[in-house]
Amino acid sequence: MEEGLIRISEINDFIFCPISIYFHKLMGNLDTIYYHTEKQIQGSHVHEIIDHNKYSTSKNIITSMDVYSDEYGLVGKIDIYNMETGELIERKKHVNKIYDGYIFQLYAQYFALIEMGYEVKKISIISHDDNKKYNINLPHKNLEYLQKFKDTIFNIKTFKMDLYKQTNVEKCKNCIYECINQISEKDFKVMNKKYILKWENNKKYVQIFSQAINEYNEDIFMFIQKFYRSYVKGKDISQYEKFIF
Ligand code: SF4
To answer: Where are the domains of the chain?
Structure first.
């Protein structure tokens, strides 16, 4: 994982699959436009309401506030904080299970708020569709989850993508990135002794090569620069820079 702060919104993604964060960044959020399902888009509308401060006009309700934790190196936003009751709320489109990622996201917001001087007495998740509320224990009342949260933050900070392999194929089946297996012979058809990529695999290979270009961008830049200089100086083709890995 790159140096620096961890976005609170990425904690859940990291637990699902660390590589998904990488592709999300790589595609500059275009994946949200191209691949998000209707449900996910509706879910983001729930947050839009909060982001535009339409949730409540009460002076005691803070919505969509930027928060920061120096201790954990976290940055992000809270959804709703009630100053009167000290309750921190995260609203989601539809909740049918409380995933660890949901809890850790709230913990992250909680620690950031505490560091910023707010008093947080309760934390909860609201499922927008069925208007159900799930109360979550504060971190110090659930030491097992507090430790899991700390481990997750540590894992994010020390993550090395080149050493990681997703072993849960089921996750990949439900993932928009489809990056597992990398280059595979069955993705191609053979014509006149040439391997031709099947058109339905285009997206997968755009991702694979985008990843490689991104990893080697400095080498590619240096190669183009040297190649261009050779051309400008009128060198013999045998003296041109070669791109070798
Ligand atoms: S396709 Fe699999 S490995 Fe790739 S980001 Fe999705 S879950 Fe992770």
So the answer is: 2-172, 182-239
Ligand 1 contact via 89 beta carbon (within 6 Å): no
The most distant pair of C-alpha atoms in the chain lies apart, rounded to whole Å, by 77
Cα–Cα dist 150/159, whole Å: 14
For the record, the structure tokens of 242 come out as 């070669």
Q: How many CB atoms are located within 10 Å of the residue 6 CB? A: 22
Inter-CA distances, 161 with 2, 38, 95, 207, Å: 10, 30, 30, 15
Could you tell me if the CB of 42 is within 6 A of ligand 1? no
**pTM, rounded to two decimals:** 0.68
| Per-residue pLDDT tens over the stretch 77-132 | 999 999 999 999 999 989 999 999 999 999 999 999 999 999 999 999 999 889 99
User: Could you tell me what percentage of the chain is helix, strand and coil, using 3-state DSSP and rounding each to the nearest 5?
Assistant: 50, 15, 35
**Domain 2-172 class in CATH:** alpha beta
> Ligand 1 atom 4: the closest Cα is on which residue?
179
In degrees rounded to 5, what are phi and psi of residue 29?
Answer: 70, 5
